[in-house]
Amino acid sequence: MLTGDTMLVTVERRGLWQLPPGAGNPIPADTSDVAKTVAFPVWLGTPDRLLVTVRGAEEPTVGVYERATRRLTPLPSLAGSALGLSGSRVLYVNRAGTLSAADVDTTTWHVRGSPEVIVDDPVFTVGNIGVAAALAPTGTLVAVHGRRERELVLARRGGDSLLFPEAREFSGPRVAPDGRRIAMAIRQENGSGIWLFDRRAGTLAPLVVPPAVAPEWSADGQRVLFLRGYGQRAEIWSVPADNSGPPVPVDTTPEPVESVQLTPDGRTWIYRTSSTAPH
Question: Which of 105, 154, 117, 127 is nearest to 53 (CA)?
Fold first, then answer.
């Protein structure tokens, strides 16, 4: 349990909400018409800045949300779903599943020049809970390719490379801070569990038995966070990445949760819900 810290919640079509320290009902952080379209938040190095996908009447676009000023800055020239920031380049994926990057001024968020297509093959799956890919702090980008039985690929300029020879029902790959390990959910006959892929050794090993989805790494790479009770009253759990101890619950959310992230400083949760019920 992260006592004394604040949790930021994004509720579809209801804007940005905050959970007070300890317990209590969510309180509005920004419920403007623009904020109500925010989805798929990604931390931008600090707990106060988010890269988001802005859902409008037409194609979604990338935007930046500043928590300190409660300001949302849409980047209308970047049409697609936000993926992450690498240096001064915003990475995003369009509906066709291709990866593009745009150079931005990270102070004003002005887009400099025209976006560049990085991976023109449609290898990125865009679903209801965002892009099935993740950008690590080291710059490594990993993505799930396909619909049900999928391939695990490393996306890079000039083409992608296959990481694991077998197609499985991979979902939600997340690269460890060291860039070597990848946590992901794999669906089998008994449900989805969390697995770890070691890029150096080429091995894939189970970490958490079903039911478990939506893995995320702690900032130090020592633990993997995940969800149990996906789509219901979800619980956030944590397990040592080296499998040296059992999974333990760390928080329970009051809403149907679809994804969860931990801020780079390890002090704040952010999660996305699908509920539109009043609080």
Answer: 127
pLDDT digits (tens, 9 = 90+) for 52-77: 888 765 678 899 988 777 788 889 88
Q: Tell me the β-bridge partners of 110.
A: none
Beta bridge partners of 119: 99
What is the number of other CB atoms lying within 10 angstroms of the CB of residue 220? Answer: 11
- Name the DSSP letter for residue 24: -
Q: Across-strand partners of 95?
A: none
CA distance 234 to 252: 6
**DSSP for residue 244:** -
Q: Is residue 36 helix, strand or coil?
A: helix
Burial of 8 (0-12, 13-18, 19+ CB in 10 A): buried
Say if residue 194's pLDDT is above 70.
yes
Q: What is the pTM of this model?
A: 0.53
Q: How far apart are CA 222 and CA 157, in angstroms?
A: 30
Closest CA to 73 of 40, 107, 116, 101: 107
**Tens digits of residue pLDDT in 196-233:** 999 999 999 999 998 888 888 888 899 998 888 654 55
Residue 95: CB atoms within 10 A of its CB come to: 12
Pairwise CA distance, residues 70 & 86, whole Å:
23
Q: For residues 212 and 257, is the Cβ–Cβ distance under 8 A?
A: no
With beta carbons less than 8 A apart as the criterion, state whether 73 and 109 touch. Answer: yes
End-to-end CA distance of the chain: 22
- 247-277 residue pLDDT tens: 998 766 666 566 666 666 666 666 666 554 4
